[in-house]
TrEMBL record:
Substrate binds at residues 14, 74-75, 136-140, 226. Pathway: Cofactor biosynthesis; biotin biosynthesis. The lineage of its organism: Bacteria, Pseudomonadati, Pseudomonadota, Betaproteobacteria, Neisseriales. The active site is at 74 (nucleophile), 198, 226. It is found in: Cytoplasm. Residues 8-232 form the AB hydrolase-1 domain. The keyword Hydrolase applies. This is Pimeloyl-[acyl-carrier protein] methyl ester esterase. The physiological role of BioH is to remove the methyl group introduced by BioC when the pimeloyl moiety is complete. It allows to synthesize pimeloyl-ACP via the fatty acid synthetic pathway through the hydrolysis of the ester bonds of pimeloyl-ACP esters. Pfam families: Abhydrolase_1. It catalyses: 6-carboxyhexanoyl-[ACP] methyl ester + H2O = 6-carboxyhexanoyl-[ACP] + methanol + H(+). One of its GO terms (cellular component) is cytoplasm. Belongs to the AB hydrolase superfamily. Carboxylesterase BioH family.
Length: 247
């Protein structure tokens, strides 16, 4: 339905907030109503313990009044999967970027991360968030010409990461979550965008989702890492615009 009204909701990843999309939003068509939401306990959103993926999906669904195009990054993509499965009437399309159905490896899921690798990745953020979120952005934007400008624009708001207990509980919830049983229930167009250099959610996680989500399209941006919408903003925005326009 190319002529349908586009209403886009952006869901951020762990340890971030809605401002991580501040550079992407102006690149989307001005005629699209676009909302970036804060997950519970992140940014300005209140936190009621414990952090729960299903409850987070329900909280986003409560903000949606008509079938919408949902873009989820990392943990936000996991929330988007639960949103699409629990509230199919609220979802017109899904874009999952650098995301996962399950984060940790299992005997029947070799695509996941080994626990030591995961612990090393997130341990730094737990010890000094403000320092490491800046380093994370610098690494993601290493070869981006206007990296300093982008970081300067989004870092002050992004550094307000939310409630420390919420961050810890959200990470624990992500490590425990397993949405593989939901994938067969999702029946909307799906765009999967992964970074070829992503060590947090490597492309093999996208390949797994692609096999399980019927009719999905997988795009691997070979030179991107864990935040393709930041490091390759214009290419990502063009890809997403074309996808949504074609739904």
């Amino acid at each position: 339905m190319p002529d349908a009204v586009k209403k886009v909701y952006l869901i951020h990843g762990w340890g971030a907030n809605r401002h991580v999309f501040d550079d992407l939003m102006p690149r989307l068509p001005a005629t699209w109503p676009v909302s970036a939401v804060d997950l519970p306990g992140h940014g300005d959103a209140p936190f009621v313990q414990p952090f729960d993926i299903e409850a987070a999906a329900d909280a986003v669904a409560a903000q949606i009044d008509a079938p919408a195009d949902i873009l989820g990054w990392s943990l936000g993509g996991l929330v988007a999967l639960y949103l699409a499965a629990r509230h199919p009437d609220k979802v017109r399309s899904l874009c999952l970027t650098a995301s996962f159905a399950r984060l940790t490896a299992a005997e029947d899921y070799p695509e996941g991360l080994a626990a030591p690798a995961l612990g090393k990745t997130v341990g730094a953020f737990r010890s000094d968030y403000a320092k490491h979120i800046k380093q994370f952005l610098q690494l993601q934007l290493l070869h981006t010409p206007d990296a300093a400008e982008i970081i300067g624009r989004i870092l002050p708001d992004l550094a307000r990461c939310g409630t420390p207990s919420a961050l810890h509980e959200a990470l624990d919830a992500a490590e425990r979550a397993d949405a593989r049983h939901l994938l067969d229930k999702i029946d909307v167009p799906v765009l999967l965008v992964f970074g070829g250099k992503d060590a947090i959610t490597p492309p093999r996680m996208g390949e797994y989702l692609h096999r399980r989500l019927k009719g999905s399209r997988l795009v691997v941006m070979e030179k991107a890492a864990h935040a393709p919408f930041l490091s390759h903003a214009e290419a990502f925005a063009a890809l997403y615009r074309d996808f949504v326009e074609g739904v």
